[in-house]
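Students often ask why inverse folding is considered easier than folding. One informal answer: many sequences map to the same fold, so there is more than one right answer. In these notes we will look at a single instance of the problem. The structure comes first.
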């Protein structure tokens, strides 16, 4: 499909043209032209009437299939522009949903995309009904008044059904999550802007081969994999990528997926350190906004600067310092900022930082383990090493092991005939 893109920059905030063009390409569009304007939002057309006429002439010349706005359009603006241009018009969020539709593979992801699409269409259909009553136009997508009213009922009915299905998925995931905690897994969530390298990091940590591409929103389906980190059982989950000003209806639709971040013990926020600083800053702040909306900024946060192999050591250090200053100004608490190359498996510093954070988690507590049977000492030590960390051992008739142990794993130890108490 061929498209003309339209970008309206506000006088105090510019839209990222490169990202918009990447969105268009990711959705499979051939870009015929990009029209840009700097002005405040026009209430009727978003862009100015003069610029709209310019677009109309461009349509006659280039014959595109669609006109796509980089700015969100109100239902009224969408109808007004379509009426003037006599061509299919969509905005940035409908474009994102088109990409989501192409990338969704699991039943859950498909339901989430359908729910988001219906939420997007709902105000458009209501606007169509309002205009029909005013005698302004025939209906929604060429439908008459009765058809449009029936479609509105269908949207509401379908949204109700999808919500129930997603609730079932959520309940199943909660059961699995509790089981994982019971058997002693640490839950780590990968979060960050789309195309930052989250899937590549998961592949490297868990020795997997999940699809990775240099395009936006490759990952829509939640992927959880197991890996052992210094003998500790760990689960890492890849989540859908963020984007600037993520609208509430998309956050709501993908809430069950984003819940993996909410329920995680540790969050790894991935940034592409090879990008220019202005882009790193923009994407970092956009990601923080989503984490804030999910109420997860109180969780242990490690900021991971990925793709350091694509730039110089000095550049990495400069950007890391700038990020540290930004975090301080914004009052954001991060455990550490770690440069890595997921592609080259340069993850030593990250693994050390993860292990440091693990023993600060509420699920770990300091215990004194009393082993009265000397023959059991090696087995008890092996068990503790798999679920915690031994700090000190005092041998005697009763061996005393001081260690950090996951609370959920205490039963496994007591079954071995040992006694646990909090050290005085």
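Output (designed amino acids):
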């Amino acid at each position: 499909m061929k498209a003309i893109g339209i970008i309206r920059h506000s006088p105090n905030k510019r839209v990222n043209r490169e990202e918009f063009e990447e969105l268009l390409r990711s959705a499979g569009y051939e870009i015929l032209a990009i029209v840009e304007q700097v002005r405040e939002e026009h209430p009727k057309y978003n862009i100015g009437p003069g610029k709209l006429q310019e677009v109309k002439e461009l349509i006659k010349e280039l014959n595109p299939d669609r006109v796509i706005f980089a700015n969100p359009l109100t239902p009224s603006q969408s109808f007004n522009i379509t009426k003037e241009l006599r061509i299919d018009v969509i905005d940035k969020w409908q474009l994102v949903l088109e990409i989501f539709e192409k990338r969704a593979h699991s039943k859950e992801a498909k339901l989430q995309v359908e729910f988001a699409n219906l939420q997007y269409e709902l105000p458009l259909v209501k606007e169509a009904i309002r205009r029909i009553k005013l005698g302004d136009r025939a209906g929604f997508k060429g439908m008459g008044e009765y058809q449009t009213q029936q479609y509105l009922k269908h949207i509401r009915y379908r949204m109700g059904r999808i919500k129930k299905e997603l609730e079932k998925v959520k309940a199943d995931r909660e059961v699995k999550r509790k089981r994982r905690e019971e058997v002693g897994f640490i839950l780590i969530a990968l979060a960050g802007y789309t195309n930052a390298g989250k899937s590549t990091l998961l592949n490297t940590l868990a020795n997997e081969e999940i699809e990775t591409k240099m395009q936006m929103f490759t990952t829509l389906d939640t992927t959880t994999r197991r890996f052992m980190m210094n003998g500790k059982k760990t689960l890492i989950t890849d989540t859908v990528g963020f984007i600037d000003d993520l609208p509430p209806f998309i956050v709501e639709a993908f809430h069950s997926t984003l819940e993996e971040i909410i329920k995680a013990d540790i969050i790894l926020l991935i940034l592409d350190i090879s990008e220019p600083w202005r882009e790193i800053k923009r994407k970092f702040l956009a990601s923080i906004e989503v984490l804030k909306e999910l109420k997860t900024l109180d969780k242990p946060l490690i900021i991971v600067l990925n793709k350091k192999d694509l730039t110089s050591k000095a550049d990495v250090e400069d950007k890391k310092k700038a990020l540290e200053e930004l975090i301080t100004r914004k009052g954001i608490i991060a455990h550490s900022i770690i440069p890595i190359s997921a592609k080259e498996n340069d993850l030593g510093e990250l693994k050390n930082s993860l292990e440091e954070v693990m023993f600060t988690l509420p699920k770990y507590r300091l215990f004194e383990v009393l082993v009265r049977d000397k023959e059991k000492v090696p087995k008890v030590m092996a068990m503790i090493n798999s679920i915690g960390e031994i700090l000190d051992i005092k041998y005697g008739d009763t061996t005393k092991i001081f260690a950090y142990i996951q609370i959920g794993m205490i039963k496994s130890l007591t079954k071995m005939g040992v006694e646990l108490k909090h050290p005085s």
